[in-house]
Amino acid sequence: MDARRLEVFRAVARHTSFTRAASDLHLSQSAVSQQIAALELELGGPLFDRSRRRVRLTPAGAALLARADALLAGFAEAHRAVAAARGAVEGDLRVSASLTIGNYVLPVPLAILGLRHPALRLQVTVDNSEHVVAALLSGAADVGFVEDEVERSGITVTHVLDDELVLVAPAGHRFAALTEVPLEELAAEPVIQREPGSGTRLVAEQHLRAAGLMPETLRVSAELSQIETIKASVEAGLGVAILSRSSLDKELALGTLIALPLAGVPIRRQLAAVTVTGATTLPAARELIALVRGT
């Protein structure tokens, strides 16, 4: 069974329209019709009922659609396995990255990788560290990048970069007169937190707790999942936040935010690549890890 024909079939089934499927696939309607006709000839019967204004699946078509995703995933996996065995950098590379890395560290390495290998198609999702690991373990990602130490069976962790977390406040805040912020001053301020499962939040809470400030006692003004939203909220005066210094280049250059260390609490962490233990790492994934590391 031809994978391209199966992709065309799936598109028609999902759109219930040859016209919309053709537009989605950037094909002519006649080309879509030809692909479906060839697939029906191969399988020995009609896959669509074309007798009404809207295209409908026949029982045979419904049976094929139920298996189409798995079949196409199998085709893709076979292609990727052969490419990996040849050392080729081509096909799909599925990357899952936590927010700080995905938004502020990966763009340049991804661009370099894509320019080096035009036959490579990058599929990148950005989520918190917990979801990155879940995507890797479920097979939805080939390589992940996280901002905290991962202790999960079946996962291999490779250090790629060091990072620093700092306290962020709006320009003109009373903290601007300080060189570092005492913990008791942080405790007196409204704080904007990342969502549960965030690597940034986990590392910050670990360091605060070790220094004697219980995260549960902070005056939390908001819990937000997007770094850009947190920065805008800090600028607007909703509260202070603990963020990666690497996410603050633009705001620090413009002078809209200030970034200070916490007194006696240097918050440093390792940014890491994660792969499935024992699985073959794709050449594209290995090269991306090297680019992130700066080698």
Write up this protein:
The chain folds into three domains: 3-86, Winged helix-like DNA-binding domain superfamily/Winged helix DNA-binding domain (Arc Repressor Mutant, subunit A); 95-160 and 271-293, Periplasmic binding protein-like II (D-Maltodextrin-Binding Protein, domain 2, 3-Layer(aba) Sandwich), CATH 3.40.190.10; 162-270, D-Maltodextrin-Binding Protein, domain 2, CATH 3.40.190. It is 46% helix and 23% strand. The protein has helices at 3-15, 18-25, 29-43, 59-86, 99-105, 107-116, 129-138, 183-187, 199-210, 227-236, 249-254, 283-293; strands at 48-49, 56-57, 91-97, 120-126, 143-146, 155-170, 190-194, 219-224, 240-244, 257-260, 267-276. The strands form two sheets. Strands 3, 4, 5, 6, 7, 8, 9, 10 and 11 form a nine-stranded mixed sheet that branches. A two-stranded antiparallel ribbon has the order 1-2. A hairpin with a 6-residue loop joins strand 1 (48-49) and strand 2. The chain is elongated. The two termini are 42 Å apart. The model has no long low-confidence stretch (mean pLDDT 89).
Notable features of this structure?
Arc Repressor Mutant, subunit A, 3 domains, D-Maltodextrin-Binding Protein, domain 2, elongated, two-stranded antiparallel ribbon, 295 residues, 23% strand, alpha/beta, 9-stranded mixed β-sheet
